[in-house]
Amino acid sequence: MAKPEYSILLLGGDGIGPEVTAEAAAVLDQLSASPNARATFKFVPRAFGGCSIDEHGVSVTEETLEQGKKCDAILMGAVGGPKWDGKRRGFEGPEGATLRLREVTDVYANIRPTEYFPQGKSPLREELVRGTKYIVLRENCGGAFYGPKVEEPDYASDLWSYKRSEIERIARMAATLALSPAVPVKKVISCDKANVLASSRIWRRIVEETITKEFPDVELVHQLADSATTLMMTKPSMFNGVIVADNTFGDILSDLAAVIPGTLGVLPSGCLADLPAPAWTPGLKPVKGFFEPVHGSAPDIAGQGIANPIGAILSAALMLRYSFGLFEEAKAIEDAVNLTLESGLRTKDMGGSSSTKELGSAIRENLKKLL
What we know:
The chain has 371 residues and is of the alpha/beta class. Helices cover 39% and strands 19% of the residues. The radius of gyration is 20 Å and the shape is globular.
Protein backbone atom coordinates (compact mmCIF):
# COMPACT_ATOMS: atom_id res chain seq x y z
CA MET A 1 0.00 0.00 0.00
CA ALA A 2 1.28 3.46 -0.95
CA LYS A 3 2.22 5.83 1.86
CA PRO A 4 -0.44 8.44 2.60
CA GLU A 5 0.45 12.04 1.75
CA TYR A 6 -0.96 14.48 4.26
CA SER A 7 -1.58 18.05 3.13
CA ILE A 8 -0.51 20.85 5.50
CA LEU A 9 -1.51 24.47 5.06
CA LEU A 10 1.73 26.29 5.91
CA LEU A 11 1.24 29.82 7.25
CA GLY A 12 4.51 31.49 8.20
CA GLY A 13 2.75 34.74 9.04
CA ASP A 14 4.63 37.75 10.36
CA GLY A 15 7.76 38.61 12.35
CA ILE A 16 9.68 35.51 13.35
CA GLY A 17 6.84 33.27 12.15
CA PRO A 18 8.41 32.37 8.78
CA GLU A 19 11.77 31.66 10.43
CA VAL A 20 10.45 29.15 12.95
CA THR A 21 7.94 27.46 10.64
CA ALA A 22 10.76 26.88 8.13
CA GLU A 23 12.58 24.82 10.78
CA ALA A 24 9.43 22.88 11.66
CA ALA A 25 8.77 22.15 7.98
CA ALA A 26 12.38 20.96 7.58
CA VAL A 27 11.84 18.44 10.38
CA LEU A 28 8.71 17.11 8.66
CA ASP A 29 10.59 16.92 5.35
CA GLN A 30 13.25 14.84 7.08
CA LEU A 31 10.59 12.46 8.37
CA SER A 32 9.10 12.16 4.86
CA ALA A 33 12.52 11.25 3.44
CA SER A 34 13.23 8.60 6.07
CA PRO A 35 13.34 5.04 4.67
CA ASN A 36 10.94 3.94 7.41
CA ALA A 37 8.48 6.81 6.88
CA ARG A 38 4.85 5.78 7.26
CA ALA A 39 3.58 8.98 5.63
CA THR A 40 4.76 11.98 3.64
CA PHE A 41 3.75 15.63 3.86
CA LYS A 42 2.77 18.16 1.21
CA PHE A 43 2.96 21.84 2.14
CA VAL A 44 0.50 24.43 0.84
CA PRO A 45 2.08 27.83 1.68
CA ARG A 46 -0.06 30.97 1.90
CA ALA A 47 0.29 34.56 3.13
CA PHE A 48 -1.47 35.10 6.46
CA GLY A 49 -1.95 37.95 8.93
CA GLY A 50 -0.16 41.24 8.36
CA CYS A 51 1.73 40.04 5.30
CA SER A 52 -1.61 39.05 3.74
CA ILE A 53 -2.90 42.58 4.40
CA ASP A 54 0.14 43.90 2.53
CA GLU A 55 -0.30 41.46 -0.35
CA HIS A 56 -4.07 41.07 -0.63
CA GLY A 57 -5.60 43.88 1.44
CA VAL A 58 -7.12 41.42 3.95
CA SER A 59 -5.58 39.41 6.78
CA VAL A 60 -6.79 36.13 5.29
CA THR A 61 -8.25 35.52 1.84
CA GLU A 62 -11.30 33.38 1.14
CA GLU A 63 -9.04 31.05 -0.84
CA THR A 64 -6.80 30.53 2.19
CA LEU A 65 -9.85 29.79 4.34
CA GLU A 66 -10.93 27.20 1.77
CA GLN A 67 -7.47 25.65 1.85
CA GLY A 68 -7.80 25.47 5.63
CA LYS A 69 -10.95 23.40 5.21
CA LYS A 70 -9.41 21.15 2.53
CA CYS A 71 -5.97 20.47 4.01
CA ASP A 72 -5.52 17.73 6.59
CA ALA A 73 -3.85 20.09 9.09
CA ILE A 74 -2.58 23.65 9.48
CA LEU A 75 0.86 24.76 10.73
CA MET A 76 1.26 28.45 11.55
CA GLY A 77 4.07 30.67 12.83
CA ALA A 78 2.74 33.93 14.29
CA VAL A 79 0.87 37.05 13.17
CA GLY A 80 0.85 40.77 13.92
CA GLY A 81 3.29 43.57 14.65
CA PRO A 82 3.53 47.37 15.06
CA LYS A 83 3.30 47.88 11.30
CA TRP A 84 -0.39 46.94 11.39
CA ASP A 85 -1.34 48.45 14.76
CA GLY A 86 -3.84 50.79 13.12
CA LYS A 87 -5.66 47.82 11.61
CA ARG A 88 -6.13 45.86 14.82
CA ARG A 89 -9.91 45.79 14.95
CA GLY A 90 -11.14 42.28 15.71
CA PHE A 91 -11.49 40.18 12.58
CA GLU A 92 -10.01 42.93 10.36
CA GLY A 93 -6.55 43.00 11.93
CA PRO A 94 -3.71 40.48 11.55
CA GLU A 95 -4.87 38.49 14.58
CA GLY A 96 -8.33 38.28 13.04
CA ALA A 97 -6.92 35.91 10.43
CA THR A 98 -6.30 33.33 13.17
CA LEU A 99 -9.78 33.84 14.63
CA ARG A 100 -11.45 33.38 11.24
CA LEU A 101 -9.47 30.28 10.34
CA ARG A 102 -10.22 28.70 13.72
CA GLU A 103 -13.87 29.52 13.25
CA VAL A 104 -14.29 28.04 9.75
CA THR A 105 -12.38 24.87 10.70
CA ASP A 106 -14.15 24.62 14.10
CA VAL A 107 -10.95 23.74 15.93
CA TYR A 108 -12.55 24.24 19.31
CA ALA A 109 -9.95 22.66 21.60
CA ASN A 110 -6.64 24.47 22.11
CA ILE A 111 -4.08 22.11 23.68
CA ARG A 112 -1.01 23.70 25.28
CA PRO A 113 1.34 21.26 27.06
CA THR A 114 3.66 22.61 29.74
CA GLU A 115 6.36 20.90 31.76
CA TYR A 116 9.51 21.71 33.64
CA PHE A 117 12.80 20.51 32.20
CA PRO A 118 16.25 21.04 33.72
CA GLN A 119 17.61 22.56 30.50
CA GLY A 120 15.08 25.39 30.69
CA LYS A 121 15.37 28.80 32.30
CA SER A 122 12.50 28.97 34.76
CA PRO A 123 12.60 31.94 37.15
CA LEU A 124 11.00 29.71 39.79
CA ARG A 125 13.09 27.64 42.19
CA GLU A 126 13.88 24.19 40.84
CA GLU A 127 12.51 22.43 43.92
CA LEU A 128 9.22 24.26 43.31
CA VAL A 129 8.75 23.36 39.65
CA ARG A 130 10.48 19.98 39.45
CA GLY A 131 7.97 17.34 38.34
CA THR A 132 5.44 19.85 36.99
CA LYS A 133 3.66 18.57 33.88
CA TYR A 134 0.22 19.60 32.71
CA ILE A 135 -1.86 20.61 29.71
CA VAL A 136 -3.77 23.88 29.54
CA LEU A 137 -6.89 23.17 27.47
CA ARG A 138 -8.52 26.35 26.19
CA GLU A 139 -11.99 26.46 24.64
CA ASN A 140 -11.20 28.10 21.33
CA CYS A 141 -14.35 28.96 19.37
CA GLY A 142 -16.69 30.67 21.81
CA GLY A 143 -16.86 33.20 24.61
CA ALA A 144 -15.86 36.86 24.51
CA PHE A 145 -13.46 36.43 21.57
CA TYR A 146 -16.31 35.57 19.22
CA GLY A 147 -19.33 37.29 20.78
CA PRO A 148 -20.96 40.32 19.10
CA LYS A 149 -18.95 43.47 19.73
CA VAL A 150 -19.87 47.10 20.29
CA GLU A 151 -17.10 49.69 20.04
CA GLU A 152 -17.99 53.37 20.42
CA PRO A 153 -15.94 56.38 21.60
CA ASP A 154 -17.33 56.16 25.14
CA TYR A 155 -18.58 52.58 25.38
CA ALA A 156 -17.52 49.10 24.35
CA SER A 157 -18.69 45.55 25.04
CA ASP A 158 -18.01 41.94 24.10
CA LEU A 159 -20.70 39.30 24.60
CA TRP A 160 -19.23 36.45 26.70
CA SER A 161 -21.58 33.53 26.12
CA TYR A 162 -21.50 29.72 25.99
CA LYS A 163 -23.93 27.02 24.94
CA ARG A 164 -24.28 23.59 26.56
CA SER A 165 -22.90 21.81 23.48
CA GLU A 166 -19.74 23.97 23.48
CA ILE A 167 -19.03 23.23 27.14
CA GLU A 168 -19.80 19.52 26.87
CA ARG A 169 -17.37 18.93 24.03
CA ILE A 170 -14.48 20.75 25.71
CA ALA A 171 -15.17 18.87 28.96
CA ARG A 172 -15.00 15.57 27.05
CA MET A 173 -11.72 16.64 25.47
CA ALA A 174 -10.30 17.52 28.90
CA ALA A 175 -11.23 14.15 30.36
CA THR A 176 -9.92 12.28 27.32
CA LEU A 177 -6.55 14.03 27.63
CA ALA A 178 -6.51 13.38 31.38
CA LEU A 179 -6.76 9.65 30.64
CA SER A 180 -3.91 9.79 28.11
CA PRO A 181 -0.16 9.29 28.71
CA ALA A 182 0.34 13.03 28.03
CA VAL A 183 -0.18 13.86 31.73
CA PRO A 184 0.95 12.08 34.90
CA VAL A 185 -2.40 12.00 36.74
CA LYS A 186 -6.03 11.48 35.77
CA LYS A 187 -7.20 14.89 36.90
CA VAL A 188 -9.06 17.84 35.37
CA ILE A 189 -8.85 21.29 37.00
CA SER A 190 -11.64 23.48 35.63
CA CYS A 191 -10.95 27.22 36.02
CA ASP A 192 -13.74 29.78 35.96
CA LYS A 193 -15.22 32.79 37.77
CA ALA A 194 -18.46 31.18 38.93
CA ASN A 195 -18.58 33.56 41.88
CA VAL A 196 -19.37 36.52 39.59
CA LEU A 197 -20.04 35.43 35.97
CA ALA A 198 -23.20 33.74 34.73
CA SER A 199 -21.25 32.19 31.85
CA SER A 200 -18.89 30.66 34.41
CA ARG A 201 -21.75 29.23 36.46
CA ILE A 202 -23.18 27.34 33.50
CA TRP A 203 -19.61 26.34 32.59
CA ARG A 204 -19.00 24.84 36.05
CA ARG A 205 -22.35 23.05 36.15
CA ILE A 206 -22.04 21.41 32.72
CA VAL A 207 -18.37 20.48 33.17
CA GLU A 208 -19.38 18.79 36.45
CA GLU A 209 -22.31 16.95 34.85
CA THR A 210 -20.32 15.77 31.83
CA ILE A 211 -17.16 14.53 33.52
CA THR A 212 -18.76 12.90 36.59
CA LYS A 213 -21.32 11.08 34.43
CA GLU A 214 -19.15 10.05 31.45
CA PHE A 215 -15.64 9.82 32.97
CA PRO A 216 -15.92 8.43 36.51
CA ASP A 217 -12.20 7.57 36.63
CA VAL A 218 -11.19 11.22 36.22
CA GLU A 219 -10.81 13.43 39.29
CA LEU A 220 -12.48 16.82 38.80
CA VAL A 221 -11.46 19.96 40.70
CA HIS A 222 -13.04 23.42 40.33
CA GLN A 223 -10.75 26.43 40.78
CA LEU A 224 -11.39 30.15 40.46
CA ALA A 225 -9.28 31.44 37.57
CA ASP A 226 -7.82 34.44 39.40
CA SER A 227 -6.56 32.45 42.38
CA ALA A 228 -5.28 29.81 39.97
CA THR A 229 -2.69 32.31 38.74
CA THR A 230 -1.19 32.55 42.23
CA LEU A 231 -1.26 28.80 42.81
CA MET A 232 0.37 28.12 39.42
CA MET A 233 3.37 30.11 40.61
CA THR A 234 3.50 28.89 44.21
CA LYS A 235 2.31 25.26 43.91
CA PRO A 236 2.63 24.47 40.20
CA SER A 237 2.63 20.68 40.45
CA MET A 238 -0.85 20.72 42.01
CA PHE A 239 -2.06 21.41 38.45
CA ASN A 240 -0.53 18.23 37.05
CA GLY A 241 -3.22 16.84 34.79
CA VAL A 242 -5.40 18.98 32.52
CA ILE A 243 -6.40 22.59 33.22
CA VAL A 244 -9.55 23.43 31.25
CA ALA A 245 -10.87 26.97 30.87
CA ASP A 246 -12.91 29.12 28.54
CA ASN A 247 -11.40 31.21 25.75
CA THR A 248 -10.46 34.22 27.87
CA PHE A 249 -9.19 32.52 31.02
CA GLY A 250 -7.50 29.81 28.95
CA ASP A 251 -5.59 32.46 27.00
CA ILE A 252 -4.29 34.05 30.19
CA LEU A 253 -3.46 30.83 32.03
CA SER A 254 -1.66 29.25 29.07
CA ASP A 255 0.64 32.27 28.68
CA LEU A 256 1.34 32.26 32.41
CA ALA A 257 2.34 28.60 32.09
CA ALA A 258 5.43 29.73 30.17
CA VAL A 259 7.02 30.53 33.54
CA ILE A 260 7.42 26.78 34.16
CA PRO A 261 9.99 26.20 31.36
CA GLY A 262 11.08 29.86 31.50
CA THR A 263 10.29 30.95 27.94
CA LEU A 264 7.37 31.06 25.52
CA GLY A 265 9.83 29.97 22.83
CA VAL A 266 9.61 26.27 23.70
CA LEU A 267 5.85 25.96 24.17
CA PRO A 268 3.80 24.29 21.40
CA SER A 269 0.06 24.33 20.90
CA GLY A 270 -2.52 22.57 18.81
CA CYS A 271 -6.20 23.19 18.17
CA LEU A 272 -8.39 20.18 17.33
CA ALA A 273 -11.83 19.89 15.75
CA ASP A 274 -12.45 16.48 17.33
CA LEU A 275 -11.01 14.07 19.87
CA PRO A 276 -7.37 13.11 19.17
CA ALA A 277 -6.61 10.57 16.46
CA PRO A 278 -5.99 6.98 17.59
CA ALA A 279 -2.70 5.23 16.81
CA TRP A 280 -1.96 5.35 13.09
CA THR A 281 -3.16 2.55 10.83
CA PRO A 282 -3.39 2.51 7.02
CA GLY A 283 -6.45 4.46 5.92
CA LEU A 284 -6.77 6.42 9.17
CA LYS A 285 -8.75 9.62 8.64
CA PRO A 286 -6.83 12.60 10.06
CA VAL A 287 -8.35 14.81 12.75
CA LYS A 288 -8.42 18.43 11.60
CA GLY A 289 -5.92 20.46 13.60
CA PHE A 290 -4.38 23.95 13.66
CA PHE A 291 -0.89 23.96 15.20
CA GLU A 292 1.30 26.89 16.21
CA PRO A 293 3.90 27.87 18.80
CA VAL A 294 2.52 29.77 21.79
CA HIS A 295 4.87 32.73 21.28
CA GLY A 296 3.97 35.79 19.23
CA SER A 297 5.58 37.36 16.16
CA ALA A 298 8.38 39.06 18.19
CA PRO A 299 8.98 41.83 15.63
CA ASP A 300 11.85 43.19 17.72
CA ILE A 301 14.02 40.18 16.79
CA ALA A 302 12.52 39.32 13.38
CA GLY A 303 15.14 38.79 10.68
CA GLN A 304 18.03 38.46 13.14
CA GLY A 305 18.08 34.66 13.02
CA ILE A 306 17.94 34.29 16.81
CA ALA A 307 14.33 33.14 17.31
CA ASN A 308 13.77 29.89 19.19
CA PRO A 309 12.33 27.28 16.78
CA ILE A 310 11.53 24.70 19.45
CA GLY A 311 7.91 25.80 19.99
CA ALA A 312 7.22 25.46 16.26
CA ILE A 313 9.04 22.11 15.99
CA LEU A 314 7.17 20.70 18.98
CA SER A 315 3.92 22.00 17.47
CA ALA A 316 4.71 19.84 14.43
CA ALA A 317 5.15 16.91 16.85
CA LEU A 318 1.72 17.63 18.33
CA MET A 319 0.30 17.57 14.80
CA LEU A 320 1.78 14.13 14.17
CA ARG A 321 0.37 12.81 17.45
CA TYR A 322 -3.09 14.36 17.58
CA SER A 323 -4.05 14.79 13.91
CA PHE A 324 -2.33 11.80 12.28
CA GLY A 325 -1.86 9.30 15.10
CA LEU A 326 1.88 9.06 14.34
CA PHE A 327 2.85 8.60 17.97
CA GLU A 328 6.33 7.17 17.41
CA GLU A 329 7.35 9.96 15.04
CA ALA A 330 6.06 12.61 17.46
CA LYS A 331 8.02 11.04 20.31
CA ALA A 332 11.17 10.94 18.15
CA ILE A 333 10.93 14.69 17.51
CA GLU A 334 10.44 15.41 21.21
CA ASP A 335 13.39 13.19 22.10
CA ALA A 336 15.55 14.92 19.47
CA VAL A 337 14.71 18.31 21.02
CA ASN A 338 15.64 17.05 24.49
CA LEU A 339 18.93 15.56 23.24
CA THR A 340 19.80 18.86 21.59
CA LEU A 341 19.14 20.84 24.74
CA GLU A 342 21.10 18.33 26.83
CA SER A 343 24.08 18.96 24.54
CA GLY A 344 24.09 22.59 25.69
CA LEU A 345 22.75 24.31 22.58
CA ARG A 346 20.40 27.21 23.34
CA THR A 347 19.00 30.26 21.60
CA LYS A 348 19.30 33.68 23.23
CA ASP A 349 15.94 33.50 25.05
CA MET A 350 17.28 30.45 26.93
CA GLY A 351 20.61 32.03 27.79
CA GLY A 352 22.56 30.64 24.81
CA SER A 353 24.02 31.94 21.57
CA SER A 354 22.81 29.45 18.92
CA SER A 355 20.98 30.79 15.89
CA THR A 356 17.55 29.62 14.76
CA LYS A 357 19.09 27.58 11.94
CA GLU A 358 21.85 26.12 14.12
CA LEU A 359 19.38 24.85 16.68
CA GLY A 360 17.03 23.51 14.00
CA SER A 361 19.90 21.73 12.24
CA ALA A 362 21.09 20.14 15.47
CA ILE A 363 17.59 18.87 16.23
CA ARG A 364 17.39 17.29 12.77
CA GLU A 365 20.79 15.64 13.25
CA ASN A 366 19.60 14.09 16.48
CA LEU A 367 16.32 13.09 14.87
CA LYS A 368 18.21 11.28 12.11
CA LYS A 369 19.90 9.11 14.76
CA LEU A 370 16.54 8.21 16.29
CA LEU A 371 14.68 7.26 13.10
